[in-house]
Amino acid sequence: MRKFKVLIIAILVLSLVISSLLGGCEPAKTSQLKVVTSTSLMAQIVERVGGDLVDVVNIIPPAQCPGHFDVKPGDIQKLAEADLFLLHGWQGEIFSQDLIASANNPDLTVV
């Protein structure tokens, strides 16, 4: 009877140890690609194509002309934290080069 109790206690302790070791094992989460777009149209395309793999932020409001857009400090911060900056390259996006320089993000890819 004593051996049976010791066996039960050993099994319980072993199962607790194993469950505590395996409790912290989760699959590694893939980090999302942080994408900043100059227009809402590009943001929608990237969201549809990238799905859950991308975190998309648009800097020019949907109904605003890019030529009349004023950069805000928050826009610079968004670009400083981004992995990718997508812009159309229209003549109206004259703010883009100054915005990229102000972000001071050497890892930023501009397309």
What labels would you give this structure?
111 residues, Rossmann fold, 4-stranded parallel beta sheet, Bact_metal-bind_prot9, AdhesinB
Summarize this entry quickly.
Its main location: other. This protein is α/β, with parallel strands linked by helices and 111 residues long.
- Low-pLDDT runs of 5+ residues are none
Beta content: 5-15%
Average pLDDT score: 82
Order of helices and strands: HEHEHEHE
For the sheet with most strands, the description reads: 4 strands, parallel
The multimeric state of the shown protein is single chain
CATH architecture: 3-Layer(aba) Sandwich
Strands of the biggest beta sheet: in what spatial order? 2-1-3-4
Protein name: Zinc ABC transporter substrate-binding protein
Pfam family, one: ZnuA
GO molecular function, one term: metal ion binding
Keywords: Metal-binding, Signal, Transport
Q: Could you characterize the architecture of this molecule?
A:
It is a single chain. The protein has 4 helices and 4 strands. The chain has a 4-stranded parallel β-sheet, with helices on one face. α3 (73-80) packs across α4 (96-103). It has 111 residues and is α/β, with parallel strands linked by helices. The N and C termini lie far apart (75 Å). The protein has helices at residues 2-23, 40-50, 73-80, 96-103; strands at 33-37, 54-58, 84-86, 109-110. It has one domain (33-110): Nitrogenase molybdenum iron protein domain (Rossmann fold), CATH 3.40.50.1980.
